[in-house]
Design brief:
Alkaline_phosphatase_core_sf, 16 helices, 33% helix, Phosphodiesterase, Alkaline Phosphatase, subunit A, 386 residues, 2 domains, Gyrase A, domain 2, alpha/beta, hydrolase activity, Phosphodiest/P_Trfase, 7-stranded mixed beta sheet, 4-stranded antiparallel beta sheet
Length: 386
């Protein structure tokens, strides 16, 4: 079976890696491209809501009347559509081939295993912060370092547990860290940060919509209630900013969307020899797999995956995926090995799971990582606080 054409030219349209350089340009930072044509601002708040895809928000707009009232348009998350990669693209202004966080999990030669970028752990061992120093893994200046160098007061308002984490150090360093414990914290810290200097950039983040989407599926009753609560939170935040710093620009975005995958559409890698033969490591996540093979077996493994799943997934070799621009216009040499010898991207309602080795991840109905509109498109909403 011949390889099908790549799913799409991901970076032919603005992505999450475009957003923060545009924000910096709007704040007056020289040399930053404003591809999104954002208006000038002296105080900007960017609120990233994990898992709130554009099509999901539009489909359930009656549950989010305040968000629906904001001026908005879709942009793309980038590839793959997963939190670690998207947060890295957000924080650096680079596609995954530039910042090196190539998926939810990547095979990393330095630790001789598959690393979860969110926890910075390989398997059940402790974190790899010593062997895999975040500032070395991702050496490019973050958008917050670039903003601070230009005299902008930067604050990162995220759950307190992320203080000093590998991902925070790698892609969000450069601002003052303000850890939160609940929604009230978020409003209080963001409002304080927005008025903390002549020019301010404040980033805030919430994860609960993503959590409930994974556990129950996007569009489930629990998910819809969470969307309604977050909508009210953003409305309260806007009101707080209006009272404290009325010339603030508020942007609301996300890191990816989500789809529901039925259990019958989950293929167990470990129980399918056509998929597991000659494979030494399986990284990524169920809807976007990085398949690392024994030396010289890449093309044979790709052929078997195409025969098994080619009607439901795009299957390409590493070279084909890189040439297609899936990881951006350039891939750093040290990042090449974090891309699978074979890359498999779901095109329909399918997922490649490991029911024993990744039992919790495999059981979740809500999944993402691929390039369907429900996963790829994210909102860029704008509210000018007056």
């Amino acid at each position: 079976m011949t390889v099908s054409a790549p799913p799409l030219d991901v970076y032919s349209q603005p992505t999450l890696s475009t957003l923060m350089p545009s924000v910096l340009a709007s704040l007056g930072v020289a040399g930053e491209p404003n591809r999104l044509h954002l208006p000038d601002s002296r105080h900007t708040v960017v609120f990233l809501i994990d898992g709130l895809g554009w099509t999901l928000l539009r489909r359930h707009r009656e549950h989010a009347p305040f968000l629906d009232s904001l001026t908005g348009r879709p942009i793309r998350a980038g590839f793959p559509t997963t939190t670690a990669t998207s947060i890295a693209s957000f924080g650096t202004g680079l596609p995954s081939g530039g910042h090196g966080i190539t998926g939810y999990q990547s095979y990393v030669r330095e630790v001789r295993g598959t690393l979860n970028w969110l926890s910075w752990r390989a398997g059940h061992k402790g974190d790899e912060l010593t062997r895999l120093v975040p500032e070395v893994v991702q050496p490019a200046p973050t958008v917050f370092e670039r903003a601070a160098a230009a005299g902008i007061t930067c604050t990162t308002v995220v759950p307190a547990k992320f203080d000093g984490s590998g991902l925070t150090r790698a892609v969000l360093r450069g601002g003052t860290f303000a850890g939160i414990h609940a929604y009230g914290d978020l409003i209080a810290h963001v409002v304080t940060a927005a008025r903390s200097g002549e020019r301010t950039l404040t980033y805030c983040y919430l994860s609960e919509i993503d959590t409930l989407g994974h556990v129950y599926g996007p569009g489930s009753e629990s998910w819809l209630h969470q969307v309604a609560l977050v909508d009210r939170l953003v409305e309260r935040l806007a009101a707080g900013l209006a009272a404290a710093q009325p010339d603030t620009t508020l942007y609301v975005t996300a890191d990816h969307g989500m789809v529901t995958v039925d259990d019958a559409d989950k293929i167990d890698f470990d129980a399918t020899p056509a998929l597991s033969d000659d494979v030494v490591a399986l990284a990524g996540e169920p809807r976007c797999r990085h398949v690392h093979t024994r030396a010289g077996a890449g093309h044979d493994v790709a052929a078997r995956w195409r025969n098994e799943l080619g009607h439901r997934m795009w299957i390409g070799t590493r070279d084909e995926a890189v040439t297609a621009g899936l990881f951006g216009p350039a891939v750093r040499s040290e990042v090449q090995g974090r891309i699978g010898d074979v890359v498999a991207i779901a095109q329909g309602g399918v997922a490649v799971v490991r029911r024993k080795a990744e039992s919790r991840l495999s059981a979740l109905p809500g999944q993402h990582g691929a390039l369907t509109d429900d996963e790829l498109l994210i909102p860029l909403l704008q509210g000018t606080i007056t």
